[in-house]
Amino acid sequence: MLMPTRSHQEFQDFVKEHLQTRYLKFGHSDAVLLNHKVLASVWHADLSKVAQIVGYRYSKAKGSPARDPVDMFRSLLVMELLRERSIDSWVHKMRYTPIFAIFSGFLPNDVPGVGTFYDFIKRIWLASSAHLSSKLRKPRRKPNKGKKKGDKSPIKKPGIVKRLVERYLQNPPIFHSRPHDLFQKIFKECFVVPSTKHGLLGDINALSVAGDGSSARTGASCYGKLVCDCRKNGIYKCSCHRKFSDPDASWGWDSYREKYYFGRTLYAFTAADSPYDLPVYLNFFKAYRHDSLCFVYSLHDFLQQYPEFKLKECLLDSAHDAYAIYNLLNHHDVSALIDLNPDSKPTMTHAQFLCLLLLPKTVSRFALLGTSCLMMVFVKTVIATSGVVLRFANHGRYPVIQFALIHLMVVFFTPKNLITYGSSLVFHGALAFLRFVTSAELLLNASLNE
Ligand SMILES: [Zn+2]
Hints:
α6 packs across α7 (98-104), α9 runs parallel beside α12 (323-331) and α16 packs antiparallel against α17 (425-449). By secondary structure, the protein is an alpha+beta fold. Among the domains are: 8-124, no CATH class; 371-450. The strands form three sheets. Strands 2, 5, 6, 7, 8 and 9 form a six-stranded mixed beta sheet that branches. Strands 1-4-3 form a three-stranded antiparallel beta sheet, with no helix packed on it. A two-stranded antiparallel ribbon has the order 10-11. It has 17 helices and eleven strands. The chain has helices at residues 8-22, 29-34, 36-44, 49-54, 69-81, 87-96, 98-104, 114-124, 160-170, 181-197, 291-305, 323-331, 350-358, 365-368, 374-385, 400-413, 425-449, and strands at residues 136-137, 207-217, 225-226, 242-243, 250-254, 259-271, 279-286, 311-316, 335-338, 390-391, 397-398. It is globular and about 65 Å long. 26% of the residues are buried. Bound molecules: zinc ion. Zinc ion is lined by residues 228, 230, 238, 240.
């Protein structure tokens, strides 16, 4: 049975009182100072909305009084901040180190047991199993890796992004009752909305977001446990089902570290036009899922979860350089700023190119950088000098003059046969030089401001 929960102000008073009586009064301020980061986190994170969000998972009238869900969630948060991985040892730690119990909101002599934590996790995870896939499955193969240094993993089935975008545009997906939905709601109400109120995410009526996937490794074995009798019968190479302790994990290619990893992809949108680049959307995907597919799903999920936000720009890396994604962003009236994929062939036809030019809101001018005919380069120069400031994903601002200069260089100093899709040496040389100049300028401005 859920009892009325206390307010954040009451929690702050509780922390103040117990730190005073158990530590500061006896001159043990070093324990508090050592954990000042955790203290700052729990002090400022108002989690009181957790009770409203998970309240419906508790009985209203029956059963013994439940632990305050806000304290339980906070305790799991402190556990994560202190990089503690096991609930058993976390409960043990809280019982013998009173400061951790106080940070969580518990009295040091009244810390909940291990079972209470597992019970709480069951309430906020909306599925009967902790795993989405079956534990018994065939071992998965590694995806193809990038050809050159720093290259992204190529997409497995060509045209799949286009098909997914078309399907979503025809029948917009409605996401409901997914296992992690309560986590997403807590993340929105307790972290993103307060950040918006403090103005930390920039202008939410013209929000700029940057999207990318990153590798999240698992500690579980990638081999699985054999459950068949093939070995007894002398067969040492079989493709039977095996038992995996983390069945949702799979192999993925980490292009940054140039390594395979076993785990998941964490796809995130961050507020790009803001001082802290704070995340506004987080979701886990299978590690073999290509970033562009994760993006299409995440964008729809994000737009559904945050109807109050108006997206203005979307900054993406070269893994997202697909015509379908420009189309999708244009459909949602969002400017696309996507890094060029140097390996993609000039697949854009003249008709598509002209369509892209006519799209009103798409700042797909960036995509036009690499197109192959001289006429297009002239058109691009005109666009560039028409007052558009281009911003490259993760590489700062390019003033129009520099942009126009580079295009004039491409037009006048590059032999015609060299202007191919992103492969002109002069173009890349000039781009590298401009990047250097722009970053030097930015550094200089930053140091002058300080
Ligand atoms: Zn077998």
